[in-house]
Amino acid sequence: MKYTKGASYERISKADDGDEDGVIRQGEDTAELAERRGIPLEGRRFRDNDKSATQGKHRPQYELLMAAVQRGEVDVIIVYMLGRLWRNRRERAEGIEILRKHQVSVLCVKGPELDLTTAAGRLLAGLLGEVDTFEVEQMSEREQRAMRQRVERGLPPSGPRCFGYTADGTELVEDEAAEVKDCFRALLAGATLSGMAAGLNERGILTRNGRPWSHNAIRGVLLNERYAGLRQYHGELYPGKWPVIVDEATWRAAKYVLEDGSRAMSPGAGRRWLLSGIARCGVCGDGTTVTSGSRGGPKGTRGLTTPLYRCRKTKHLARGTGPIDFTVEEYVIWRLSRPDAIDLLVDESAPGTGELWAKAVALRSRIRALTDEFANDDDADAVEFKAAIRRIKARLADVKVEMAGLQRSRILVDIVTAEDPVKAWKDLMLDRQRAVVETLATVTLLPGRPGRAPFDPRSVRIEPLPGMG
Hints:
The chain is of the alpha/beta class. The chain has helices at 21-37, 60-70, 89-101, 119-152, 174-188, 193-202, 215-222, 248-259, 321-337, 353-376, 382-416, 421-427, 430-440, and strands at residues 6-12, 45-49, 76-79, 105-108, 113-114, 230-233, 236-239, 280-281, 290-296, 305-311, 318-320, 441-445, 460-464.
């Protein structure tokens, strides 16, 4: 058959570090076949490097090829072998139908010429494709069996190096492991992900790829069960035989904090001032918190601004941040320097601490299971369903109260146990200081005196939270 509008397609599924030698070799062979058959390609060459068809990865060049076919610009596609074009049943069926409709054939370097306008050509393409699919699926089964064996033997996952471990995953990189442990400790003490990332970047600590840390990168570390000596396989956790960086209870606690939508014990990220979003407006009387802002300095100080706390709702409250922050800091240091400050801590070594996190996870899973069951059962009783959910949520609320006690201990312990509470407070990052304030007391700001009257500490009302007095 004589073809006048040829196109070639090359693809390789796995390319080490983006190596293009595989697709280049395919391209040389398809170009040689096109020249031998006198088929002009005229720039219609399409190449996807390191794109797996079986895994459903996006193949932009393949999509461009199919678009050219549908525009009538191609009458034959030259490939190294049919498996380079399609390797899953759905895509193969769709592709064969497109080529049949537009009367396009497939010419293989290693394989037959397939006229897809005929039933025989489509049958052969389907049979060859099934052989390709069989080989891929069989290889996948072998890989899954090998992976399961590694899991059962407690071996670490293969793949890119995990921050904190050597390349084979069997030993710790001590300085990185210490940073990981500090991140878990900081999260459970009230630090934010963005704050932790900023701290690591300021100290020049980079990710395993040599890049700066981000909010999502820190989150990925703290959700990684590998640091607790665990490995997830098909939704189940299996114990591993590599060195652990944190215990399982600590990892589960971090997972709970990150996946619990409320994050009630940890203030939001991105704050610049101690009390933004924490202190309440004393004029509104409805719990409205203050935000931060600024105003221009006195006349003759062009370019200078004064940071302020403002009511979120109205303009009736605008107070300078400096004296207010100083007043609150004095209270925190005074309270956590008292001899009875140790009573604010909870004994985290008490039996049942680890079970507390597991209980919360189990209760949330039960809620999801009941919800799915109700959604799929047309005869389910809505009243009974709601009553069951209420009972489980009540039990979950009790567990959260107990966990709040544990969280409180982690937030306060650095200052309570320090030899120098003042220095310990100053050494905390802002997000940690904010967590301490929220844990200890409710801060309400009242309007200041008019004019240039001296600052009145009584305009900052500090009320200890229950158990914090």
